[in-house]
């Protein structure tokens, strides 16, 4: 007589996720899964323990095509014993408070789900674990390569226009509560470059609504179609006018990005510590910048909000609905040793980050807001503030003030007009010859724009 094999109880957090999935897919109780061979808590490289894959028939009458539905397990607390996540109680967040999902349109005759979305989700999870930045609904990710061009497919040519990411609320999976806390399901939505620009210029939520209105571009469930070649603005040109009107009416909710950036103090008015920017010794040496196209790791995110400024602030750089205008550095103004005023500054940005400067002025500072560039891999940050921002250490009398490695740059009404005019060409970065230097001697300010691939 054979003895029954001992059963291994399902961890409580994982059981809660499975319960939610069974409600959505009652006929798929044993879905295909991608499993981390060596769990993260045992030293493995992949933070997600499991990625479940479901076949969703969709609802063509409602603009929802058949698709594959991928759901992660591992960003939330699966075990509750502290092996990965701190336990915060049943009413707190479970782990990071979310799991990732992805919906991929089925190709004709496709019987098995592709595995590359699982790699994509693992890469995003690595970013979260590395930086402690949570991914939230309405955020965008500048991925800059086709989403299916993952590590295992780099050798294949792929000309897909789906190269960027927006994050949305999963339309099918609801907020889940377990004994280990609560979690939401955040859906990855593949988009074109033009749609990313709209999210940056206006806001992610409104761009998602535009995508939902176009069945070919995602429809109500925001299903990614890697074969889509046209943006929503090519399909419906009038949508670009909506973005323009929305930006003029509301401004932009994008208030900060991760970037390749560096700043230094200018000692003498109108001069710089170095003038030959073709000399390798003058190109952003501290810190070393990572080239996204040559390093297939998680420094590929040259622009990725939200920014977790926990080393400077407990707030995320979010839209005005969730962002207090008071500066985190205002609480540290008594720390004289860390706070200083600079006579002048030289700011250096990669071209992708610099291309957002016209947006920062038009969509943020002109509306009384602020905009922050934070280094992707150091604690350096540069915040542009308008006169309406309270609590900043940068003022009209001391326009360039620093708190540690955090520079706050006050941009008054007179200077903002000059900056808008002189930097307007950066809105079309493909037309700018690099490196490019902009100088305002009367303000003792210099901005240097460098190629993205510059180390």
TrEMBL record:
<dbReference type="GO" id="GO:0005737">
    <property type="term" value="C:cytoplasm"/>
</dbReference>
<dbReference type="GO" id="GO:0005634">
    <property type="term" value="C:nucleus"/>
</dbReference>
<dbReference type="InterPro" id="IPR037181">
    <property type="entry name" value="SUFU_N"/>
</dbReference>
<dbReference type="Pfam" id="PF05076">
    <property type="entry name" value="SUFU"/>
</dbReference>
<dbReference type="InterPro" id="IPR024314">
    <property type="entry name" value="SUFU_C"/>
</dbReference>
<keyword id="KW-0963">Cytoplasm</keyword>
<dbReference type="InterPro" id="IPR007768">
    <property type="entry name" value="Suppressor_of_fused"/>
</dbReference>
<comment type="similarity">
    <text>Belongs to the SUFU family.</text>
</comment>
<dbReference type="InterPro" id="IPR016591">
    <property type="entry name" value="Suppressor_of_fused_euk"/>
</dbReference>
<dbReference type="InterPro" id="IPR020941">
    <property type="entry name" value="SUFU-like_domain"/>
</dbReference>
<dbReference type="Pfam" id="PF12470">
    <property type="entry name" value="SUFU_C"/>
</dbReference>
<protein>
    <recommendedName>
        <fullName>Suppressor of fused homolog</fullName>
    </recommendedName>
</protein>
<keyword id="KW-0539">Nucleus</keyword>
<dbReference type="InterPro" id="IPR038489">
    <property type="entry name" value="SUFU_C_sf"/>
</dbReference>
């Amino acid at each position: 007589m054979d003895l029954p094999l001992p059963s291994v109880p399902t961890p409580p957090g994982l059981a809660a996720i499975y319960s939610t999935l069974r409600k959505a897919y009652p006929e798929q109780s044993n879905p295909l899964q991608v499993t981390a061979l060596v769990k993260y808590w045992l030293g493995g490289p992949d933070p997600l323990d499991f990625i479940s894959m479901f076949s969703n028939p969709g609802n063509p009458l409602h603009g929802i095509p058949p698709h594959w539905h991928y759901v992660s397990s591992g960003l939330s607390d699966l075990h509750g014993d502290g092996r990965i996540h701190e336990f915060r109680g049943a009413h707190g967040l479970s782990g990071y408070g979310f799991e990732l999902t992805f919906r991929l349109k089925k190709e004709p005759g496709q019987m098995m789900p592709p595995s590359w979305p699982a790699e994509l989700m693992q890469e995003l999870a690595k970013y979260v674990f590395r930086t402690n930045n949570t991914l939230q609904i309405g955020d965008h990710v500048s991925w800059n390569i086709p989403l299916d061009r993952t590590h295992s497919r780099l050798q294949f040519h792929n000309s897909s226009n789906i190269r960027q990411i927006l994050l949305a609320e999963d339309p099918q999976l609801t907020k889940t509560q377990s004994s280990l806390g609560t979690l939401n399901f955040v859906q990855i939505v593949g988009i074109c470059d033009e749609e990313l620009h709209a999210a940056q210029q206006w806001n992610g939520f409104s761009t998602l609504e535009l995508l939902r209105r176009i069945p070919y571009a995602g429809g109500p469930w925001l299903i990614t179609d890697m074969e889509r070649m046209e943006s929503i603005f090519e399909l419906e040109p009038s949508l670009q006018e909506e973005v323009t009107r929305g930006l003029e009416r509301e401004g932009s909710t994008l208030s900060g990005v991760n970037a390749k950036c560096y700043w230094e103090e200018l000692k003498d008015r109108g001069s710089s510590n170095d003038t030959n920017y073709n000399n390798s010794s003058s190109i952003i040496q501290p810190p070393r910048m990572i080239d996204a196209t040559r390093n297939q790791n998680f420094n590929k995110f040259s622009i990725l909000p939200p920014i977790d400024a926990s080393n400077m602030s407990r707030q995320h750089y979010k839209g005005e609905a969730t962002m207090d205008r008071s500066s985190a550095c205002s609480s540290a103004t008594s720390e004289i040793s860390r706070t200083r005023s600079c006579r002048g500054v030289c700011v250096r940005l990669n071209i992708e980050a610099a291309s957002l400067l016209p947006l920062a002025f038009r969509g943020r500072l002109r509306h009384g807001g602020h905009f922050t560039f934070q280094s992707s891999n150091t604690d350096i940050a540069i915040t542009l503030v308008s006169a309406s921002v309270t609590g900043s250490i940068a003022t009209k009398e001391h326009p360039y003030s620093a708190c540690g490695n955090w520079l706050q740059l006050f941009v008054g009404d007179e200077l903002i007009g000059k900056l808008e005019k002189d930097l307007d060409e950066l809105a079309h970065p493909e037309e700018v010859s690099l490196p490019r230097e902009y100088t305002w001697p009367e303000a003792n300010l210099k901005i240097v724009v460098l190629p993205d691939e510059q180390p």
